[in-house]
Amino acid sequence: MATEDFVNGVGGGVKDLYGEDSATEDQLITPWNFSVASGCTLLRDPRYNKGLAFTEKERDAHYVRGLLPPAVFTQELQEKRLMHNLRQYDVPLHKYIALMDLQERNERLFYKLMIDNVEELLPVVYTPTVGEACQKYGSIYRRPQGLYISLKEKGKILEVLKNWPEKTIQVIVVTDGERILGLGDLGCQGMGIPVGKLSLYTALGGVRPSSCLPITIDVGTNNEKLLNDEFYIGLRQKRATGKEYAELLEEFMHAVKQNYGEKVLVQFEDFANHNAFDLLDKYSSSHLVFNDDIQGTASVVLAGLLASLKLVGGTLADHTFLFLGAGEAGTGIAELIALEISKQTKAPVEETRKKIWLVDSKGLIVSSRLQSLQHFKKPWAHEHEPVKELLNAVKAIKPTVLIGSSGVGKTFTKEVVEAMASLNEKPLILALSNPTSQSECTAEEAYTWSKGKAIFASGSPFDPVEYEGKVFVPGQSNNAYIFPGFGLGLIISGAIRVRDEMLLAASEALAAQVSQENYDKGLIYPPFTNIRKISANIAASVAAKTYELGLASHLPRPKDLVKYAESCMYSPGYRSYR
C-alpha cells in the first residue's frame, strides 16, 4: 500500500501511514496497515468503524454481516441523526460527553459533525463547556485519551512516548494543568484541554488525527478540593517546583525531539504565568514551540484590532491601548501590538510600547513600581503617577481600546464602559477571559452601557443583542481562528522554529478574511462557518513567511501555498474498503 506519494510524505513531509491524504474519497483503501481488521475488531476501531454506513459488500468482505442491523445509512443520514440526538440535551456537559463517546467510536463521523456544525459545536468541545468538563474530568473519565506523564515517569519519559501507538506525530499539545482557562489549578484533570485543542487542529486546520498527541504532565496539584477528592485521577501531592519541575520538563522536551524529530510542533497550553514565559524563552531557540495563551491569543486579538480599523478609522499607531490583566495573555497581546506598530511605522519597539498601558491587581503598571515587578511586566512600566483603580486609569490614560485578560469576571463595570463611551465615538471593548463566567463584561452590558456605541468582542461566545431596535452581533476573539491554521502552516512548510513575524503574518491573514458584510454587522472577525478556508489562508501566509525567513525544510516551496494547504487537509468523508 506504500505508493510513491505515501513514502515521500504528502502533507508536510510526514509519512501518511493510512493513505488519508493521498486516497480520494471514491478510491478504495485497505482499512489496516499492520494487521487485518475485521468483524468486531473493525467495529471497535474508531479510525475505521463506519457504523451503519458499511455497504452490503463491505459487510460480507469484512465479516460484519449480522453484527449490525440490516439498514445501510449514508454518512449524511448518520450526521443528521446524531445532531438531532445532541440537540435533545439541555446540559452542555452531556453534549460534551456524547461527542467524546462518538470520537472514541467513529472518528470520521465525529470530525464530519464538527466541520459541518462548527458554530454550534465549538462551544461544546472548547470554551466554555470544556472548562466544566475539566472540573469534573475525574467523574466523567471513561477511557484514557492522550498520554499522562507524571513525576513517577521521571527517567522513563522516552519509553512512555514509545507506548503511544502512532509513531509519526506532527503536533503535541501539552499542559501541566496549573491554570486551566480562568478556573485555576485542575491538576491532571486538565487533560480535557489538550484533547479539545487537538480535535480543533483536525476539524478546523485539517491536521490528521493520527498525527496529533495530547499530553498532560502531572507534577501534583495545589487544589485542596482535588487532593481530598477520592475520585481524583492524578498524583495526590502538592505541585513540584524549581529544580524538580525544570528537570522533568527538560527530559520531556529532549524525549519529544528524540522520538519525533526536529519538526514536531509542541504547543504549551494553560501553564501558570511564571512557567509559561520561562518555557517559551528556554525552548524557542532549540525546538518548534508555540504557547497558545501568549502567542495564539495575541495573534487573534491583533487580527481583530487590524480588522476594527475599518470601523473606527486611523492606523494602529493612532490608538491608545489599556489592558486589565498583565499575565500571559495581556503581555503577549501587548508585545505583538507593539511589534506590528513598529513594523508599520519603522519606530523601535521600545518607542511603540509607550502607546500601551497595563493594569494588574495592584493598579496601573508604572515606572515607580519597577523594582517589584515580574520580569515580563517590566517593559510596560511607563512614566505616570500611580493609579489604583481601573476606572481612574481609563480616565487618566484615555484609551481608545480596552482589553480584558484578567481572568476575573464583572470587572468592566457600568462606570468603566460609560467612561470609554464618553471618551470615544466608537470604543473598542474586548472582554477576553474564559469561560463565560469569568468574562469582564457581557455583550449586553457593553452595548447597553455604551448606548450602542461599543464595538465588542469576547473570548467566550455571546448571543446577538438587541438595543433600541438594532441588533448587535458580538465577535468572538477565539484562538481557534489562529492556532489550527498556524499549526498547519508550520507543518506544510516543515518549519523548524517559530518567530514573531509568523504570528504577525497569521494576524494579517485573518484580518483580511473579514468581509464588508461582516463589517456591516459590526463584526471584526469572520464567521466560523468558513473556518477551513480561513485556516488554509492563514496556513499559506505562515508558510510563506517561514520560507522567507529560511526556516522551512519542506523544499522546494510549493507554487500555490493556499492550494497546497487545502490539499494537505484531512477530509472526514468515509473511505470505501476493499
Automatic annotation (TrEMBL):
Query: What keywords are assigned to this protein?
Result: Metal-binding, NADP, Oxidoreductase
Per UniProt, residues of the Malic enzyme N-terminal domain are: 103-284
Q: Does the keyword Transcription regulation apply?
A: no
Cofactor: binding details: Divalent metal cations. Prefers magnesium or manganese.
What InterPro entries does this protein map onto?
Aminoacid_DH-like_N_sf, Malic_enzyme_CS, Malic_N_dom, Malic_N_dom_sf, Malic_NAD-bd, Malic_OxRdtase, NAD(P)-bd_dom_sf
What are the GO cellular component annotations?
chloroplast
Q: Which residues does UniProt mark as catalytic?
A: Y126, K197
Q: Name one GO biological process term.
A: malate metabolic process
Instruction: Give the catalysed reaction(s), semicolon-separated.
Output: oxaloacetate + H(+) = pyruvate + CO2; (S)-malate + NADP(+) = pyruvate + CO2 + NADPH
Q: What SUPFAM superfamilies is this protein classified in? A: Aminoacid dehydrogenase-like, N-terminal domain (SSF53223), NAD(P)-binding Rossmann-fold domains (SSF51735)
UniProt xrefs under Pfam families = malic, Malic_M
Outline the extent of the Malic enzyme NAD-binding domain: 294-547
Which GO molecular function annotations are given, in alphabetical order?
Answer: malate dehydrogenase (decarboxylating) (NADP+) activity; metal ion binding; NAD binding
Q: Where does (S)-malate bind?
A: R179, N434, N478
For this chain, the family text in UniProt reads:
Belongs to the malic enzymes family.
- Write the protein's name: Malic enzyme
Can you name the source organism?
Medicago truncatula
